[in-house]
Amino acid sequence: MKSQWCWIGVVLLMISVLAFWGCGGKINQENFKKIEIGMSYDEVVAILGAPVACKSIMGAQTCDWGKEPRTINIKFVADNVVFRSSEGLN
């Protein structure tokens, strides 16, 4: 009985690790290339997931996805992509 609980714990740990890796899995070159000028904020979120942070200045919004060293930065004006950049994507 004790070894059964041990195996259940190992399986749950593996599932947790895979779920954690999946969260960062959207921050890659393939998804970055899908982001096009003129896309809406909602279309970008459908590809990359929710941003880590956003800030608004004078009607423009800048949002960041990922964390160093792999990041995507997108600037929106009137809810549409006007600029995109990335770092650390291979």
Produce a short descriptive summary.
This protein has helices at residues 2-24, 29-34, 41-48; strands at 53-57, 60-67, 70-77, 80-87. It has 90 residues and is of the alpha+beta class.
List strands and helices in order, with pairings.
Layout: H1 2-24, H2 29-34, H3 41-48, E1 53-57, E2 60-67, E3 70-77, E4 80-87
Antiparallel strand pairs: 1-2, 2-3, 3-4
- Roughly how many Å apart are the termini? 46 Å
Q: Kindly state the number of beta strands.
A: 4
Overall 3D shape: elongated
CATH class of the domain at 27-87: Alpha Beta
Strand content: 25-35%
Structural class: alpha+beta
The CATH architecture of the domain at 27-87 can be named as: 2-Layer Sandwich
- Number of helices in the DSSP assignment: 3
Q: Averaging pLDDT over every residue, what do you get? A: 84
What would you report as the Rg, rounded to the nearest angstrom? 18 Å
Main sheet makeup: 4 strands, antiparallel
Q: Helix and strand string, N-terminal first? A: HHHEEEE
CATH topology of the domain at 27-87: Beta-lactamase Inhibitory Protein, Chain:B, domain 1
Low-confidence blocks of residues: 11-23
Oligomer: single chain
Query: Widest sheet: strand order?
Result: 1-2-3-4
